[in-house]
Amino acid sequence: MSGEQQQSQAGDTTDPSMDQPQTDYQARANDDENTPDTTYANIPDGAYPGGASGLRGVCGFLRARRICLAAGIAVLLSLGALGIAPLTFSNKQQASCPQGYTIWCGTCYKAFNTSTSFSEAGAACRADGGILAMPRDAGTNAFLVSLYKSVSDDRDFWIGLHDQREEGRFEWVDGSALGSYTSWGPGEPNHLLNEDCVAYTAIPHMKDKWNDDNCYGQKHFICQAIPEYP
How far apart are alpha carbons 182 and 14 in whole angstroms? Predict the structure, then answer.
């Protein structure tokens, strides 16, 4: 929802069904944004080249068990205390992200401080060899919140979630279904005024939660990309 139309408190939900009735459905992003990017669709957690044995490998294992955030932070702090670089590999290779990106559990992320529409944000991510960020679990979601706060704490940020192809059926920009994890603000998604695209919101009463909004709105955005290895 846009503005100050909801007054209840924010909270994560785990309702696997997002098939809520909607009425207004007119806004559309550009056609290329409606075509799923399958580059990321079938890549299992941690299934990236390089033979990771450090934090990335551990996170890939733990994330499948829905505890990547707590375990990852614990491992990161432990390695830091020992003076060990958290992203080391048995063959001494180092993950390489696009410039300005930060790696988390085998994926590179970057929050951009420029404002654009949902479609244009997706195009900017593709120009970087990536895609709009897809926080599929609590650990990644918490990481992305902390990441974009380092850029701006009072702006909305697009993520790669929408229901442009079928009203009420939210999907990620790679074409995969939303899944069981969500972080909607109170009363969201409410599909008000052709709201088909999702962003982290800066609205005070549901700050840092997901909010469906008009796809043509001007917002900051977060991209993700697959790291490369030498």
Answer: 6
Residues 220, 150 contacting (CB under 8 angstroms)? no
Give pLDDT tens digits for 110-139.
999 999 999 999 999 999 999 999 999 999
In a domain, residue 136? The reply is: yes
Q: What is the domain extent for residue 179? A: 102-225
Nearest Cα to 14, choosing from 175, 167, 136? Answer: 136
What pLDDT is recorded for position 78? Answer: 43
- Block residue for tokens 């005024």: 193
Determine, yes or no, domain membership for 60.
no
Tell whether 177 is covered by a domain. Answer: yes
Q: How far is residue 103's CA from residue 97's CA, in Å, rounded to a whole number?
A: 7
Q: How many domains does the chain have?
A: 1
- pTM value? 0.64
Residue 215 contacts residue 117 (beta carbons within 8 Å) = yes
Buried b (16+ CB within 10 A) or exposed e, 73-98: eebbeebeeeeeebbbbeeeeebebe
pLDDT (tens digit, 9 = 90+) per residue, 66-90? 445 554 554 445 444 444 344 433 3
* 110 lies in some domain: yes
Quick check: 133 and 109 in contact, CB under 8 A? yes
CATH at 131 = 3.10.100.10
Could you tell me if residue 140 is left (phi over 0), alpha (psi between -120 and 50 degrees) or otherwise beta?
alpha
- Reference 125, options 140, 106, 112, 107; nearest CA is 112
Strand blocks (E) in the chain: 102-104, 107-116, 131-132, 157-162, 171-172, 195-200, 210-214, 219-225
